[in-house]
Each structure stands twice: as structure tokens, then as C-alpha cells.
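Record minuted for completeness.

…
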Amino acid sequence: MTHSDKSGKQILSYASFCLGNLGHSAFYGVMSTYFIIFITSSMFSGLNQSVADKLIGLITGLMVVIRIAELVIDPILGNIVDNTKTRWGKFKPWILIGTLVSAALLLVLFTGIFGLAQKSWILFAILFVLIYISFDVFYSLSDVSYWGMVPALSEDSHARGIYTSLGAFSGTIGWNGLTIIVVPLVTAVTYAVTGKHEEGAPGWLAFAAVISALAIVCALIVCFGTKEKHNIIRNSAKQKTSLGQVFGAIFHNDQILWPSLAYLLYSLAYVITNGVLFYMYKFVIGKPNDFWVVGVIATIIGFCISPMFPILNKYIPRKWLFIAGQTCMVLAYVLFIFGRDNVFLMDLGLVLLNVNFAQLVTVLTLTDAIEYGQLKNGQRNEAVVLAVRPMIDKFTGAVSNALVGYVAIAAGMTGSATAADMTAHDISTFNMMALYIPLALAVLSIVVFLTKVTLSEKKHAEVVEELKDQLAEGKIEKNESNTQVRPQDQTIYAPADGKLMKMAEVIDEDGKPFPGKGFAIKPDSGNIYAPFDGVVRFTFGTKHAFEIVSNNGLQVVVHVGLGTVNLRGEGFETYYDDGQKVKKGDLLLEFDRNLALKNGYQDTVVTFYTQPGRIIVKSSEIEAGKIVEHGEKVLDVQFK
């Protein structure tokens, strides 16, 4: 495959995954936000108000219980996905099946189960419980599969970051796009069917149908436009992660715990506010037809935030981007509280509310916490870390549903009520739940991130280098699972073109000798090749080093450049999957030597053994200064 063919397939994969979350996120928005609005405003029209309020309370309570139960259910569903084996992979079937079934069940729910509550509210309640649980299980299967697919699409940390950013980007568009179309679409269809200018049941059903169709189309795009890869990360996903292990990993790794708490506080504030913005425009401001502005502003800002993040992060550390975003959120609440009578101030508040980098900062910080956790307690918890943010989102969604339902009932914002029916007490209740509590949560998220999150980009680089030193010194023994292989003599060939160096000659960026046993090459080019036949077992997230194990059992790390960990993957491009078998001389990696040198780092390529105490070098003398080409024999080693 030519480089251009590979690039074309990669772009198609990026685009397909991106479009997938457009419909997926819009569908989630319908079920998590607008379904509650439909329930409180239209589902029980004509029913006795006391009975309607009881059903609203039942439904919102049920939704909260189910969302919290998902903290246990999702790992079970993840295991179902992991154990799936089809010709199309294990993720795509569930993405499509989950979307099709949940879309059909959502439409049934938006019919009010065909108006059953008007005939028997008890039977309605029973069927609602059964249908909603089934709906939520199938949606979760789709959700778990979509985000769980990222490690299967690429082994490259930079590529995974692109997939995640694109998913977040299109998700913002899908979510906020609902805000633009919901009132015009629901009102227009309701008027066409009933002749009334209001948000009625026919309009809500049409709205759900349009978004369900979009979700199905986008699911098909993901299934046809992406390709799952086979690598060691996917295989490791077969190890079942219990709820106890998930929370154990969080509480034993403070740099998972504190970023997660800060994100939890932000997410609670954001989803609560978004859940009640419709009520603010309809019942507090009295301008429901202006609600579309919320979506337009959020969509425009969403178009800018994700692309801006990597640019800003080159000059501004993640920590301060998080703080800046949360400060904007705090200012937004101040404007909502004191400036709701001023259109300009309200629009400015909406802009500030959406200027936020919390999700991207949290994902990247948690990813860095993988190496931090490995250094701290010897465990790498990739699967657990990937599960943390979605679990937080589900939990905050549950809390949001509960509060939205409570606000609607407590503030009298149900049924046919209008802004004219709102009392001072109703407005006060709304303000407390929708504005004052989220404001406090936003401030707390700043405090937590500012005082407790210490895993900066610089700190992560130090962690990775310390891990490298421990590997080189043999303090971290990596035992291969295949105990049938007895280590044998192994010839190591040059992984790069250039001049051979002894380890004693390698001095790192801090003026210290490079630890461990091995050899180095001062390269003539940025191409790195396999030093023997074997399997690439592990790549650091910063892509500057990878471990390769020979067919004879020798484990080495090829460390590309000194200080290059600080480039955080920039200038590196890999041509393998973790877990992939390779042959001696296969091109594995390219790195931009000029970029490394320009930033003050060295381009020296070091090959060291991760089991230095178990091996002896048969050709003990490295011919320092000798010019070698990749694939040329450097030395022989044997196990003790």
C-alpha cells in the first residue's frame, strides 16, 4: 500500500468516526434532555394533573436509578462486546444493532406508548419500565462499542487523540444542533397536525423520528467507513474489569481521582444548566421561540474549541486551559443571574458557557495517568481509564434527569403552564437549582484542578523518563505470558543507519549517563527498523520508545532520541500495531530529527535490554565509531 493510499484510508476512517458521533450524540441529547421535556409538557396532556405528576416523578426516578445502575451494567455489556467475534469485528455489530433497536424503542416511548396512560396509567407504568430498560441497554451497547472502538482503530496515541477530538467535535455539533431545530420542528409539525402553535405530542414524535433516522445513518457510516485493527490492546480488553477494579484504580491513582472529580463537578454544572435552558426561555424569560439561539451559539463555539485546543496547548499548559474554561463558565452564570433581561448579556453568557476545554483536558490528563499509575503502583489500567469519563457522563446525566424533573414539578413548569403562571417562589426555586448550584460546582472544579491535579505535561515527561530508567536498570521485569518459549541466543541488528556508540558515551539532556545495558546509534536518518524478528509489545504514549520481543525471548526497548519525550508524539509516525509480528529490517517508525534538534534534544537512538540481569553479551565489545546500516549485525546476546 502506498503512503497516499494509507493517508486516504486514514482520512476516511477519521471522517467516518467523526460523523458517527454526530448522530450518536444527537440521539443521546434527545433521550437525556428533550425526552424529559416531552414528558413534563406533552406526554400526559389531558390526564389528571396529580396522576400526571406522579407518573413524571416515577419516570424521572426510574431514569436516575437506571443510569446509576449502568455503572455496574456497562462493564457487563463491555464483556459481551469483548466476547463477540464476527467477520465485521466485535464493535460494529453492536453499534448497528444497538442503534436500530434503541431508535425503534425511543419512537415507541415518544408515542406515549401509543397513548396508553390515558386508558390505564398502571399498565403504562409497567410497560414503560420494561421498554425503557430495554431501550437503555441497547443504547449502552452502542455507546460502549462506539467509544471502545478507538483503541481498535489505531495503536498510535496521536491518532487516537484525533479520533477522540473528532468524536467530541461532532458530538458538540450533534448535541447543540438539537437546540437549533427542536422548537421550530416540534412547533411546525404540531401546527400542521393540530392547527395549534405549540410544542405538542405530534411534533415531539416527528422530532424523535428525525434524530433516530440520523443516528441510524451515522451508525452505518461508522460501520462501513472504519476498520478495526488487531493488536495487543484489543486482546487485553478480554480481561474483564469489575466495578470494584474500576473504582479501585481510580482511588489508588490520585491523578485519575482528582481530574475525574474536577470533571465530575464541571459536567454536573454543564448538564444541569443545559437540561433547564429550555425552561428558562419558556417559563422565566417567556421567549421559547428564541431558544434556537442557544444551539446556534453553542454550535459556532463548538466548531472553534476542538480545533483551537492543540494550537493553544502548544503555548498554554492544559491546566490553565481548564481553569480558563471554568472561569468563563462562572462568568456565564453571573450573566444569567443578573443579565437575563438583556439580550446581549444573555448571548454573551451562552458564548462563555460553551468556551470550555474540560473534556479534552480531562481525557488527555487521564491518558497520561496511565504511565503515572504504572510508576506508582506497577499497574497499567488502560481499559479502566477509558471507562472513567463515560461513567462520569452517565452519572451526571442521571443527576441532571432527576433535577430537571424536580425543577419542572417544584417550579410548576409542567403541562400547559406558561411564563405568566410563574410566581416569585417558582422563579426562586428555578434559580437555585439551575444557576446557583451549578455556579458553586463550577467554582469547586477550579479549586480541585488548581490545587490537586499535578500531572502536567512536564510532570508526565518526567514520569515516562523515570519509567524508562527503571526498565533500563531491570527494576521492572516484564514476564512474557508464553512460558513455552525458552530464551535462546539472539543476534541484534542495527535499528537505524549511522554511527555505533557504547552506552557509556550516551549522555542524556540532564548531563546524566543513560542507564542500563545496550548500545546506541547516532543516526543519519529518521527511519527506525526492527532489530530482529519478533513482536512489538508496547509503545509509550509519547511514541518516542517501544518495546520489541524477539522470537527467542529477548526483550529490548528502542528509545528514539534523548529528551524527545517532551515532544509528546509530535514528529513521530509509527507503521505497526502494538502486538504485531515484525521481521528484521521492517520499517517501524519515522521521526523528525530536525524537529528534535531544533528543540534542543538529541537524536541518538538507544537500544537497551529490559532484563539486564538475565543476559550476557557474547560480543562484549561494541565497535564504537563504526558506521552501520540498518539490518547489519551489531552483537549477539545470550540468557544466563
